[in-house]
Amino acid sequence: MAQVQNPTTTTLGYALFATRWLQAPLYFGLVAAQGVYVYKFFKELWTLILMCVSGHATETYVMLAVLKLVDVVMIANLLIMVIVGGYETFVSRIGLQGHRDQPEWLSHVNSNVLKVKLATAIVGISSVHLLQMFVDVHHTSRHALLWGTVIHMAFIASAAILAYMSGPMVAHTDRGHADRAPAAPVQAPDHGGRRHTEPESQRPPAAAVPPQPGPDADAEARIRAAGFPARKVLEEFDQQHPRGFDREVLARLGKADFVAARRNVVFVGPPGTGKTHLAVALGVRACQAGHRVLFATAAEWAARLAGARAAGRLDAELAALDDHPLLIVDEVGYTPCDAATAGLFFQLVAHRYERASLILTSDRPLGRWDEVFGPSAPALTDRLAHHAEIVRLDGDSYRTRRATSAWAD
Fold first, then answer.
1. Is 394 in a helix, a strand, or coil?
2. Which residues of 54-70 are buried (b: 16+ CB within 10 A; e: fewer)?
3. What is the distance between the alpha carbons of residues 279 and 361, in angstroms, rounded to a whole number?
4. What mean pLDDT do residues 58-64 have?
5. Sign (positive/negative) of CA torsion 268, 394, 402, 404?
6. Residues 6 or more apart whose Cβ sits within 8 Å of residue 158
7. Mean per-residue pLDDT for 85-89?
8. Residue 155: strand, helix, or coil
9. Do the beta carbons of residue 242 and residue 290 sit within 8 Å?
């Protein structure tokens, strides 16, 4: 039964949420401060040029002047990080929709990431200040040099502590979201990417995807939390098997830029041509690029959304999924879909439209999705395909070919 919300409580909550706009003038004030630093930079640069042209610039003076310019630039970088990242995190999303100049970190910025980046930026600025003291050591008192070093070490220690804490915090958050993710059935993967589900009574104990050695422990935590049925990589995909396969598109998608651009990917083709393999492999690449991912079959997503709707929290569930820049929906069209389920998938696609990315795999082209989603299909596919890469995989089933070859042997 749907939960009935108190109108007064809802209105009060929306009013409190709207107060975030009070921060907007603060960020525009920082934009003005950015302009002040631009003026200061060119003033210092002009003074340096005049001193060099007149022949009064010593080597020490030039070095100190250049360090001062670097200092101004680094503070300006810190400002832009606070302005853009803070506004995106605490006020409102910035709808760049795949702008080519979108910062890489903006797609997965949050308060935790922002704190670490700011701390490291402050350490860089402190390093420049300390270097200025050492360059001009003859005019710097021992007391100032000592305290400058102590303060710099304090900045380094605080940044190291923040960076250390961010790892467990991200892993804990990923595990918490993984607990809410639909459980993926234990299935035997094959090279083509499809999976054979075993009866529950015959399933062996579920095993987590084994982590592969690598420098990024956070990426491994994201991969484990994504719920992939098995770990797949693009390098293992047999690109010679599908017919009419666009390898350049796959190479471009492998950079995972489509996630930052909030674009979608749809793999279409007969069973056994590697759609799931590619979807999982791109999901792994996205995790390694710093994005959080969730994987489930269409039937599992339908069950999850139906459960949220029955509990009266469908909107909250869709909002919670925004924490994952990429969702993967496997096997679209493999099971019948009633009108209520079609409506749930439409709400999922519409909610993430130009907001976050989806990867879907299906055995039929978008033009035949009315066979799956009925009257909801045109509106659903319109939003899905507007910012999407449609990848067609033609060919015989890899499993069938392998079975035939084994029988011939």
1. strand
2. eeebeeeeeebbebbbb
3. 7
4. 86
5. positive
6. 119
7. 79
8. helix
9. no
Residue matched to tokens 């190291």: 160
Q: What is the pLDDT of residues 308-357, one digit of tens each?
A: 999 999 999 999 999 999 999 999 988 778 899 999 999 999 999 989 99
Distance CA 163, CA 220 (A): 17
The CA-based diameter of the chain, rounded to the nearest angstrom, is 88
Angle at 187 between CA 392 and CA 320, to 5 degrees: 75
Pairwise CA distance, residues 237 & 60, whole Å = 58
Task: Provide the token pair at 152.
Answer: 């710099």
Instruction: Please tell me whether the overall predicted TM-score, pTM, comes out greater than 0.85 for this model.
Output: no
Q: Between 142-180 and 111-135, two packed helices, what is the crossing angle to 10 degrees?
A: 160
Q: What is the mean pLDDT of residues 56-64?
A: 86
Please report, for residues 6, 185, 340, 370, the alpha-carbon distance to residue 182 in angstroms, rounded to integers and kept in the order given: 30, 9, 19, 26
pLDDT in tens, 109-129: 555 666 777 777 788 888 888
**Per-residue pLDDT reduced to its tens digit, 180-236:** 444 444 344 444 444 444 443 344 443 333 444 444 688 899 999 999 999 999 888
H/E stretch holding 297 reads strand 293-297
84 near 103, Cβ under 8 Å?
A: yes
